[in-house]
Amino acid sequence: MSDSDSPKKKYCYVLRLYPAYYESSGWTDEARETVLRHFHYLKDLAEKGTLVLAGRTVNEPMSGKDFGIAILETFSREEAQSIMDNDPSILGKVMYAEFFDFSLALMRK
After folding, report:
1. Cα–Cα dist 90/109, whole Å
2. Structural domain boundaries, residue 21
3. CA distances from 28 to 23, 62, 63, 95 (A)
4. Does any domain span residue 66?
5. Residue 40: inside a domain, yes or no?
6. What angle do CA 67, 14, 62 make, to 5 degrees?
7. What's the pLDDT score for residue 4?
8. Which single residue of 28, 39, 43, 48 has CA 20 to 30 Å from 54?
């Protein structure tokens, strides 16, 4: 059985800002550009059918309780982990992430 014959599985990663970015005064042009690349990265994954959903909590100022989430559907854990590891927000050190296997229990039609 090839990877393309196996059922896809769901994974997610939870993103958190580094504390320097909790307040808007801590944002640099470079950090803003990094988050824009992050958005386009996720948008591309959604268009390819890999990203199920992405979003974040909305508070001002942000704190350590705030987070973003990206839910992925891939053929392997390694593929999903690689997607997280290559997220521009992680590579650019604006956010850090924690990876999880994920089970989608309910979703509206």
Report:
1. 32
2. 7-101
3. 11, 16, 18, 14
4. yes
5. yes
6. 15
7. 55
8. 28
Task: Give dist(CA 63, CA 22) in Å, integer.
Answer: 6
List, in sequence order, every residue forming a beta bridge with 16; answer none if it has no partner.
Answer: 96
Assigned token pair, 4: 């393309």
Token representation of residue 42: 């996720």
Please name which of 65, 70, 58 lies closest in space to residue 97, comparing C-alpha atoms.
Answer: 70
For 39-90, write each residue's pLDDT tens digit.
999 999 999 999 999 999 998 888 889 999 999 999 999 999 999 999 999 9
The tokens describing 55, both together, are 């979003």
Q: What is the CATH number of the domain that holds 50?
A: 3.30.70.1060
Distances (CA, A) of 49 to 30, 35, 41, 42, 68: 29, 21, 13, 11, 19
Q: Which residue has the tokens 């001002």?
A: 60
d(CA 33, CA 38): 9
For the entire predicted model, the pTM comes to 0.89
Q: Assess whether pLDDT exceeds 50 at residue 103.
A: yes
